[in-house]
Design brief:
The chain is α/β, with parallel strands linked by helices. The protein has 11 helices and 10 strands. It folds into 2 domains: 17-121 and 248-318, Bordetella uptake gene, domain 1 (D-Maltodextrin-Binding Protein, domain 2, 3-Layer(aba) Sandwich); 122-220, Periplasmic binding protein-like II (D-Maltodextrin-Binding Protein, domain 2). This is ABC transporter substrate-binding protein. Residues 1-20 form the signal peptide.
């Protein structure tokens, strides 16, 4: 009798889960972006969620909550009910936070389940419009000659621009004076205004300014040149052999979200990454969507774990920690 009761209970739970997945979504879905509005991650989120809205038949609303290197918004998403109605769209900073922060209100390795990778975004080394060097060779000479007098802007500890800057300074064996901002927007504003000199940021945020002449471009952080900026050399071809940094974005759900719901979201994401409107806009920003084979829960789960392992020694060697 006891076994029959357990079996009946299991059947009811399975039926309820399946029924919830079949009816999902039945209301608005909130997508947490733990960075300021108008930044690179916000841009990716709004393009993808607009397409997913059409596929799922319910509105996906982007909600920005920046601060503390993205940990505030991420913590809030981790505490949400695992019912598929609160998601997290984050990037490499989720992986780096595992080593950067001594205490977190979530576990980067276990608090979320992957829905799928979205993009691998190239980065560019850029400078203020009136910066004296005109090419990457001259910039490297300028940085080495002036050392800590050169100001390098980034969007906060653990941000993509911060991580790229750490690797760049390590590659050239020079430490610049770093200026930390609360988001990419304020950092780029000061670069445009000439208050800081150099920055490494995603093409999502730099291509428009480069093409308008508002900032100088020096190099791409990819192994191959960018189709959107074909005349821009790579750091690899400019003497920093092997230098490569791309910033991935991924869509996550809180741990415990039913697998059927995750799969439905993954299918909608895969559709979005093939949407001609999304592909065209991504191309204008120098972004390529990942293949459908990579936009899956299993691939993102594996990728997150490998990225946590990748950034741990980099951060430990730099001796950078945040409270």
């Amino acid at each position: 009798m006891h076994r029959l009761a357990l079996a009946a209970a299991a059947f009811l739970v399975a039926g309820t889960t399946a029924g919830a997945a079949a009816d999902y979504p039945s209301k608005t879905i909130t997508v947490m972006v733990p960075h300021a509005a108008g930044g690179p991650t916000d841009t990716v989120a709004r393009l993808v969620t607009e397409s997913m809205t059409r596929t799922l038949g319910q509105q996906l609303v982007v909600e920005n909550q920046g601060g503390a290197g993205g940990t505030l918004g991420t913590g809030r998403a981790s505490r949400a009910d695992p019912d598929g109605y609160t998601l997290l769209l984050h990037h490499v900073a989720l992986a780096s936070s595992a080593s950067l922060y001594r205490k977190l209100p979530f576990d980067p390795a276990t608090s979320f389940v992957g829905v799928g990778l979205i993009t691998d975004v190239p980065m560019t080394i850029v400078g203020k419009a009136d910066l004296k060097p005109d090419n990457i060779g001259e910039l490297l000479d300028y940085i080495r000659a002036n050392k800590d007098q050169v100001t390098y802007a980034h969007a906060g500890v653990g941000s993509a621009s911060h991580l790229c800057g750490m690797l760049f300074q390590d590659a050239i064996d020079v430490q610049m004076t770093t200026v930390s901002y609360k988001g990419t927007g304020p950092a780029m504003t000061d670069l445009l205004g000439g208050q800081v000199e150099v920055m490494c940021d995603q093409t999502t945020n730099t291509v428009g300014h480069i093409k308008s002449g508002k900032i100088k471009s020096y190099a791409a952080t990819t192994k191959s040149r960018l189709s959107v900026l074909p005349d821009l050399p790579t750091l690899d071809e400019s003497g920093l052999k092997g230098f490569e940094v791309t910033i991935w974005h991924g869509l996550f759900a809180p741990k415990g979200t039913p697998g059927d719901i995750v799969d439905k979201l993954a299918a909608a994401l895969q559709t979005a990454l093939k949407d001609p409107r999304v592909v065209e806009r991504f191309a204008q920003l120098g972004i390529e969507p990942v293949s459908p084979e990579r936009a899956t829960p299993a691939v993102l789960d594996q990728h997150l774990q490998s990225e946590i392992a990748k950034w741990k020694p980099v951060i430990q060697e730099a001796g950078i920690y945040a409270d």
